[in-house]
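A reminder from the course coordinator: this example appears on the midterm review sheet, so study it carefully.

Given structure:
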């Protein structure tokens, strides 16, 4: 709901449990009065009136005691006279960088439209508020668009810049959202890591100064997810105020927190200003990607559940958004590049016998690709290697009762490829430097329309040639030597964002053209696990690291924002190919059941005993998957040596509890595991046994943890409501 209290020039945005209140000062500057638990009052301007003044600040507009630098500004400019880090920066033709935005008008309506060319969280249900700010002298308008997802407890914000004059404006910095707190007592929470250990939860206190989390890789990146939260120091999984932002974008981003000298905090998120500039001609509009803002008083657990629901309901556009996902087998860690038709079919037969529903042929099926060294870009099936056409292979896999899926890496071109030979100018590069190779490949210049069309046609041709039900869309290197031969000198700093716009156009066309295909995003694992990709592709490969123990941290961290149904989680060999760790099949299976279960294992080497166990795992997962993929997640324990989590079904009739002890310790007495999300007064049957336990007892007293002397021990419980 959005209340516009005209006389007070106040805008009260309300979700079920939160309020965001914005206000126009007499001077026309916009301030944030409040963001937090829902409040019901109709007058809030006293909040700014009660801000105590400090000295050594200039009076704004010559008004005595009016000091803009102490106001919690909604979309702050730099240097007029606020001197803190601004939300935006424009440069004008005369070299001036001073912008003075004052409130102009507002518009409110129902139903949020998709942002043109950009992934968007959408719903017919939500209320939208557009606030127009203007600098009359510089002839520029900034429109802040807020959308209230009342039912989901979330608010989105994006920003559009309009050049309403006749001269060029250079956009040098443009955050999509900025919120100013009159307080600084927060912990900073980020999801950070590296390739193979993406999205680890990290928490630290913040102090006066500036903290920036960013990506300069033209991908959201393995090292830093485009998410940032400020939490009360006492906040935990179940309690406490948490304020968070998540960027619906897959390229360079910046998430900043600044604590100023008066202990106020500015939280902002948007396109990375580093190496960015956009030339905005007269009458042109630049639309920023959007930020999702989630506040809760009920800790990190509730924050995650809000994102999960919102993303399943309103972000993921695929028809599979809420449909249970097939158990898949992927050929990568089973065969790498070393396969022929016979090997594939033997693997497929074995997989089908185990209950696998989708057989995915990973890298190595096209051009003359038998190693990382060549053929990316030449999306022509290697019929010699596959002993026939893709269509035949797909048919044979289908005949085994499985769907057939295929790997692509369409944004790339190998130096050794026909495509590069005929179009060396199609890669991202600058003129006078030899471009860097990474994994023997260059990045195609997706800012060029003809390159976008090439990719669309090449992928379509393969998809039209066979019954392909699934595509894994990979992206295995970051962009270096950022430059485009297609853009003039004064637009070179636009390349990174234009690349993303090009990628989004390709994905929009292909996912609409092939709505029945289940698309899975990947970027060397979780190098682009973000809401931008999820808009187009309903699941993402969480990490190239398939070690069950490392996956605990990766999947726990990822679950802070992204729903289980978005996470690809596979059982692989032991010893693990990435870290060499040995874990039991049971533990690997249980950890992979935190998301969409798959297998990447050489079934030709698997023993009969292991096959029987895998068959059982798959059958059990099929029973559980609706609850895992569409249910409600509770993270129960996140300590150094133990993890526990549970999923409850939407109707409350079932729950699955998982527990992992990392290292066995001597002389310890295991404690109890308190559950969450159950119903008071309802009895649950534990593990199909004779024993039943009441909901509140399970939540307050808990299940007894077993005493085991075993590293990497895992245990799962099933709870079924007694009818
Ligand atoms: C990336 C992916 C892997 C696999 C390989 C194939 O590393 O993350 O899963 O598909 O590429 O080259």
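Designed residues:
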């Amino acid at each position: 709901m959005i209340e516009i209290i005209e006389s007070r020039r106040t805008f009260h945005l309300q979700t079920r449990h939160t309020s965001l209140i914005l206000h126009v000062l007499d001077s026309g500057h916009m301030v944030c009065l409040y963001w937090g638990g829902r409040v019901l009052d109709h007058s809030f301007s006293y909040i700014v009136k009660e801000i105590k003044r400090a000295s050594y600040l200039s009076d704004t507009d010559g008004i005595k005691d009016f000091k803009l630098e102490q106001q919690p500004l909604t979309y702050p400019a730099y240097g007029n006279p606020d001197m803190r880090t601004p939300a935006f920066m424009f440069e004008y033709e005369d070299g001036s960088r001073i912008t003075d935005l004052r409130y102009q008008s507002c518009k409110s309506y129902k139903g949020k439209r998709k942002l043109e060319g950009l992934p968007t969280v959408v719903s017919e249900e939500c209320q939208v508020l557009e606030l127009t700010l203007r600098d009359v002298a510089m002839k520029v308008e900034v429109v802040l668009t807020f959308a209230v997802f009342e039912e989901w407890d979330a608010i989105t914000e994006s920003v559009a810049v309009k050049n309403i004059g006749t001269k060029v404006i250079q956009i040098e910095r443009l955050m999509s959202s900025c919120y100013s707190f009159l307080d600084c007592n927060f912990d900073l929470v980020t999801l950070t890591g590296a390739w193979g250990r993406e999205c680890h939860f990290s928490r630290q206190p913040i102090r006066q100064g500036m903290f920036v989390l960013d990506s300069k890789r033209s991908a959201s990146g393995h090292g830093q997810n485009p998410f940032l939260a400020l939490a009360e120091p006492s906040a935990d999984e179940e309690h406490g105020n948490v304020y968070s932002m998540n960027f619906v974008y897959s390229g360079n981003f910046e998430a900043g927190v600044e604590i100023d000298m008066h202990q106020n905090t500015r939280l902002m998120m948007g396109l990375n200003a580093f190496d960015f500039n956009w030339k905005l001609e007269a009458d042109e509009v630049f639309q920023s990607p959007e930020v999702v803002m989630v506040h809760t008083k009920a800790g990190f657990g509730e924050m995650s559940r809000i994102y999960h629901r919102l993303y399943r309901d309103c972000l993921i556009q695929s028809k599979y958004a809420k449909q249970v996902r097939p158990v898949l087998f992927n050929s990568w860690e089973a065969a790498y590049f070393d396969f022929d038709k016979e090997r594939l079919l033997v693997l497929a037969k074995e997989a089908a016998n185990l209950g696998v529903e989708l057989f995915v042929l990973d890298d190595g099926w096209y051009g003359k690709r038998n190693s990382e060294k060549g053929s990316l870009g030449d999306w022509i099936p290697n019929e010699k290697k596959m002993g026939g056409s893709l269509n035949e292979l797909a048919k044979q896999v289908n005949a085994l009762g499985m769907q057939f899926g295929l790997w692509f890496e369409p944004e790339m071109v190998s130096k050794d490829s026909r495509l590069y030979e005929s179009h060396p100018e199609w890669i991202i590069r600058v003129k006078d430097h030899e471009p860097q190779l990474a994994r023997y490949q260059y990045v195609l210049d997706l800012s060029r329309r003809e390159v976008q069309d090439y990719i669309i046609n090449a992928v379509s041709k393969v998809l039209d040639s066979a019954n392909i039900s699934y595509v894994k869309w990979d992206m295995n290197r970051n962009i270096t030597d950022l430059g485009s031969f297609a853009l003039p000198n004064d637009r070179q700093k636009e390349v990174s964002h234009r690349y993303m716009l090009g990628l989004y156009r390709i994905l929009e066309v292909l996912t609409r053209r092939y709505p029945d295909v289940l698309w899975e995003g990947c970027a060397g694992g979780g190098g682009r696990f973000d809401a931008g990709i999820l808009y187009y592709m309903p699941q993402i490969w969480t990490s190239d690291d398939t070690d069950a123990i490392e996956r605990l941290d990766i999947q726990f961290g990822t679950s802070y924002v992204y729903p289980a149904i978005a996470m690809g989680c596979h059982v692989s060999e032991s010893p693990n190919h990435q870290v060499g760790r040995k874990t039991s099949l049971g533990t690997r299976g249980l950890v992979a059941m935190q998301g969409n279960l798959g297998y990447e294992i050489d079934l030709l080497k698997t023993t009969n005993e292991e096959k029987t166990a895998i068959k059982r795992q798959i059958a059990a997962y099929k029973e559980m998957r609706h609850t895992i993929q569409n249910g409600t997640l509770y993270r129960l324990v996140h300590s150094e040596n133990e993890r526990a989590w549970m999923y409850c079904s939407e109707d409350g009739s079932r729950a699955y509890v998982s527990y992992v002890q990392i290292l066995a310790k001597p002389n310890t007495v295991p404690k109890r595991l308190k559950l969450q999300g159950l119903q008071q007064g309802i009895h649950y049957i534990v593990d199909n046994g004779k024993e039943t336990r009441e909901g509140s007892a399970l939540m307050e007293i808990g299940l007894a943890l077993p005493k085991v002397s075993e590293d990497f021990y895992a245990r799962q419980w099933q709870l079924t409501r007694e009818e």
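The radius of gyration is 27 Å. The chain is about 20% helix and 30% strand.
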